[in-house]
Every structure is written in C-alpha cells, then in structure tokens.
Amino acid sequence: xxxxxxxxxxxxxxxxxxxxxxxxxxxxxxxxxxxxxxxxxxxxxxxxxxxxxxxxxxxxxxxxxxxxxxxxxxxxxxxxxxxxxxxxxxxxxxxxxxxxxxxxxxxxxxxxxxxxxxxxxxxxxxxxxxxxxxxxxxxxxxxxxxxxxxxxxxxxxxxxxxxxxxxxxxxxxxxxxxxxxxxxxxxxxxxxxxxxxxxxxxxxxxxxxxxxxxxxxxxxxxxxxxxxxxxxxx
Length: 234
Description:
The chain is α/β, with parallel strands linked by helices and 234 residues long. The chain folds into 2 domains: 1-76 and 152-168 and 177-234, Rossmann fold (3-Layer(aba) Sandwich), CATH 3.40.50.300; 85-149, no CATH class. Helices cover 35% and strands 26% of the residues. The protein contains 9 helices and 10 strands. The protein has helices at 40-47, 92-98, 106-119, 121-125, 136-148, 166-181, 193-199, 217-221, 224-229; strands at residues 2-11, 14-24, 29-33, 54-59, 62-63, 77-80, 154-158, 185-190, 202-207, 210-216. Strand 9 (202-207) and strand 10 (210-216) form a beta hairpin. Helix 2 packs parallel to helix 5. It is globular and about 45 Å long. The termini are far apart.
C-alpha cells in the first residue's frame, strides 16, 4: 500500500532522514520506534507531504512526490500530528467536523462521527465543550477522531501517548488497535516501545535518521538489544 525506498529529507544542511526504506501493507499496523531526534516525526511529515523529500514514495504504486500537501487527505492519508494541533477555542464537535472538510458524503460523515463517539465515548459527552478545557488524553482522542473523520485508508499517528496519564494511554492504544481491526492501515511513531510492540504487526527502529532494525513485533520484543535499550530489560 505504502512504499518508501531510499527516502531522504533534510532541514537545510541537517540530514533528518537517510535512505529510509519501509512498507505498510493494507490493514497493517506498523510502529516506528526510536529516541527523540531519530527522525520519526520527519518521516510522517514526508509521507503527508508537509516537507520535501527525495527518493521513492508511493501509495498504491502512485508517486506522492508530485502531490500537494492539501491533496494528500483526498488520497486517503490522514495525519494526526505530534502535539495534536487542535483548534483550541473551538468545541470538540467543531474540531471533529473540520476533519471531514473535504467530504461531501453527509450520511457517511454522520456514520463516521458515531464511530468516533463509539471509540471515545467521553467525546460524545463533551462534544459541546471547548477543546482547550479538556485533559491531554481527551485532546489526543479528539486529534485521532479528527483524523478518522477524513476517512483514511492510511492513518499516520505521531506520538499518540506522549504526556498522557496511564489510564487514558491504555484507552487510546486499545482504540488504535480497534481502528486497525476495521481495515485501516496505520503507521505509528511512538516512544512507548512496550505498548507499541504489544499492538503492532511490524516494527521499524529509527536511529539518527536511518532504519537500524526492523521485524515483526514479536521478533523485536524478544531481541536482546531492543529489550535492553527500549524496554529497560536485561
């Protein structure tokens, strides 16, 4: 579905991504692990065309290099960015509705809104509440919900668990797994290696802008280096 080959990206003279090769199959949940500064967010920005990149980047065999950033959503790629980037003075409902701004299928939009409320019942209770008054975890739910309102075939999630209380983090990871189970492919950048390995199908480890390791979640969960560096286990 998504294929990257020798993808490179830089900020000025600073190389952020170096020869990244990566694939996401339809309906697959792929996690990208790595420390701060490894290039995880840059990778997702390159896929959603928020930054310029070089190399091969295709969706269903079609190159994305000539696709404008504002057109990516129409191809089925929705990006839930690091830091959530919500409209803080608008309500939960308005933020969710803005996720569907390109869509004309009103009945399907209403169905997807209900799907978001089923995933995150608290949002249904607080749909009229100003987003800035929600907790960090609830705001993350809104951000994921807004991305889902774009009807993605591929959902890009950037650090969905950062700064969130443990209980809400577990709810969010359970919801991410439920989204995958509906057939939406997910590429998730995440620092919480233990939780990511628990729900992912496959994993890539980024270090210093390149892929240091890759494999199934089960393989990497048993890898001595991953256990030592990312899980804190001997």
